[in-house]
Amino acid sequence: MVRFLEIIILAIVILVLPGIAAANLRQLESCKRPIIPVDDVYDGKWGFNANLVATAFGPFAAASFDAYMDYEKQLSFLPADKLKRIGWHRLHWNAGSHRFNDGLTGLVFDTYYKTTRRCTFVIVAVRGTDGPSLRDAFSNAYLITRALPVPNQYRAIKTQFANVRAFAEKTFGRGKVVYVATGHSLGGGLSIQLAKCFDRVSAVVFDSSFVEGDRACRGFAGTTVVEIYDKHEILSRLRAFMGKSRASHVNNANLATYGINPYELKGGRPIAQHGIIGMALGLLRAPLDCMAKNAKCEIKAAYNDQRYAYQHILLCDIYARRTGQVIAYRDVCVAPRPLASKR
After folding, report:
1. Which of 4, 55, 197, 271 is the most buried (most CB within 10 A)?
2. Contact present, 230 and 262 (Cβ < 8 Å)
3. Among candidates 38, 53, 81, which has minimal Cα distance to 253?
4. Which pLDDT tens digit goes with each residue over 170-187?
């Protein structure tokens, strides 16, 4: 009976959710474990600070949002002419393009890279459900359709990521590349599958799908999955209804879940709350707001100048200017200043 109820709810989500979709990059420091949860002891209890979560992972939400955009002029955070400001480049692996777009299954993802002295970090930003789409609906229903021998995004991304990996290893050196998959909604589920099915892959996902793909994949040592979700959005409410709330999980180095409210809509709008743009803007703005208005901002003691500068570049110097909203963000888009101390 419970299983039947889950299938019914999943079917409702597939029909209703389409149309809703419209790193901290400094986090990539360790070649062995590029993603590190930000949990610590607060008031004697193991927990997290939402501003630190936003500082660490906001730029991944920006990359996840831009994966939904079809044209260069639509990109809000990572346009080609601005990308170098945060030290990243597009990985042109697909016939000279950094984007893969599969007309058969609907799978779309972007690839970026940053090279350090020790290794190269590659980000794979995966698009989620994009409007009313039978292709996306079919992949969202993978729990039901997995037995059918037909193409879908969960199968396609494993094949295409293997191609990305082969290109990256040939370009940067075998065994010298680590990967972070990121995505929203369906894109989150696809990203988690990559982290579970391939070694040296971690994932940062937002309001992720229930469906996480291949059950035979169990993950690898050194893999970290970070799930960030809006506590009021539709999938989180459905998880809680089915007794699968993320809130009961105790974070560790392999799996961390953060329930926050970066984008609060009045009147209780759980479907609208699911959108990635609110998540991205909320996560980018939070640390800037903290620094500008809170004399006791925890970020001063926990993050260095470069982390703060990334948030400022993405939200103030790129997004606000490209969208003509400089005035709207003037209260937080003050000039970056040196932070008081470092942990």
Report:
1. 55
2. yes
3. 38
4. 999 988 999 999 999 999
